[in-house]
Amino acid sequence: KAGVTQTPRYLIKTRGQQVTLSCSPISGHRSVSWYQQTPGQGLQFLFEYFSETQRNKGNFPGRFSGRQFSNSRSEMNVSTLELGDSALYLCASSPRPGLAVSSYNEQFFGPGTRLTVL
Amino acid sequence: AQSVTQPDIHITVSEGASLELRCNYSYGATPYLFWYVQSPGQGLQLLLKYFSGDTLVQGIKGFEAEFKRSQSSFNLRKPSVHWSDAAEYFCAVGAGGAQKLVFGQGTRLTINP
């Protein structure tokens, strides 16, 4: 079974532009989460999608948005890019979310998209 | 709120030596705990996980971790490291009810030949 794929793998943008990153989950997985990794802040949760609905969102400004399609593929968008948005953006998929507070489902990570903002 | 602390930012060990990476967590309920490894320019690979049951869990690549509820710890161990183990290691706790991981800051492991 193919793993999580993310496109593009590398991206260079300039300040003020916007960018869209794509994530295809493992076949049969319906839950997708996004993370930002920077040297200063480490790995931080961005948002989680299931059945085309955002279930949870991390503490990021509104410039960061996402969506999920009916085939479970997900995109995230960052508008009005800032230098501080330079990061590795990781996508993770799982079969479904843990719907109860006491449950959790393992996430499988993609290789990430390296975004550089100049 | 959940939090994870990895006290050691950087550790250097000699090849063949034993390894222990420390992880402390804060979470109000039963934690779902993970160790991931990341090689330069790569994504995260799961080494092992603890959901419930036996507190000593075995993972891939010869790693193991022990969950100690009384100490809120989930330390990663390997009896004999190999040069290929050089990477960054992340401890994480899963938030029940949300597909969200809270990560520690990571520990960079360097192996001396």
How does this model look, in words?
The complex is a heterodimer of chains A (118) and B (113). Chain A has 118 residues and is mostly beta strands. Chain A has strands at residues 5-7, 10-13, 19-24, 31-38, 42-50, 53-57, 64-68, 74-78, 87-94, 108-109, 113-117. In chain A, the strands form 2 sheets. In chain A, strands 2, 4, 5, 6, 9, 10 and 11 form a 7-stranded mixed β-sheet that branches. Chain A has a 4-stranded antiparallel β-sheet with strand order 1-3-8-7, with no helix packed on it. In chain A, a hairpin with a 3-residue loop joins strand 4 and strand 5. The mean pLDDT of chain A is 92. Chain B is mainly β. Chain B is 0% helix and 51% strand. Chain B is built from no helices and 12 strands. Chain B has strands at 3-5, 10-14, 19-21, 24-26, 32-38, 45-50, 56-58, 64-68, 73-78, 87-94, 101-103, 107-112. In chain B, the strands form 3 sheets. In chain B, strands 2, 5, 6, 10, 11 and 12 form a 6-stranded mixed β-sheet that branches. In chain B, strands 3-9-8-7 form a 4-stranded antiparallel β-sheet, with no helix packed on it. Chain B is globular, with a radius of gyration of 13 Å. The N and C termini of chain B lie far apart (41 Å). Classes of the chains: A mainly beta (118), B mainly beta (113).
